[in-house]
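Regression check, uracil case 237:
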Amino acid sequence: MERLDKILASQGTLSRRDVKEIVKKGRITVNGVVAKKSDIKIDIDNDTVTLDGEFLSLKEHIYIMLNKPQGIVSASESDTDETVVDLVPDELYRKGLFPAGRLDKDTTGFVLITDDGDFAHKILSPKNHIFKTYLATLEHSLSQSDINMLEKGITLADGTTLKEAKVEIIEDGEHPLVQIMICEGKYHQVKRMFAAAGNKVIALHRSKMGNLELDEDLKPGECREITLEELKMLCER
Ligand code: URA
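Current build output:
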């Protein structure tokens, strides 16, 4: 059981004081009965709450899939750039949203935005082996020995060790399109891996996290809430 004002204040743009005012005006009902106090305890799984007749979502956390466009930074706020959290529409927005893992400013694709720190830690920790899948367009062709090297894991010149990857050429050609799956998220990791093979990434897109593909109906800059079933797929190895 949680306090009504605490739950509502954690969901969106209302403060506890706002909730108090709204309750005073009789605008909130709990299970069909007008709430008289803002600190009453409610059961988020079973009780229904309305504001001005509209049902409110009482979920503890939210999980959002964004198709990140180029030029947007993976941060909650920035003084200089537009952030992935700025792209979340009002109906999904709540306090404490952050991107679970960062994509570079020029990388596109799947970013998970949430307010659930424990979940973010779980999917990002390399020891949980949740692979993130990227599509990299390369400047040069990739040899089988390059692939073998990247698949084994490498140590960079600065001593950074990068764990094993799964690498597959999707389209060969002058600028091959290569799928690479990694379970850690070190700084510029994919770019540095291909650089270690004497190559260069000219475009990078994250297409999948765990077993969950980026929804192809989401245009760049669009996002939607992830369902519970999809969340499970995200956690699959
Ligand atoms: N690896 C990179 O180099 N950049 C990203 O944005 C993600 C993974």
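Comparison notes: The longest strand covers residues 201-209. The two ends are 34 Å apart (CA to CA). No diff flagged against the previous build.
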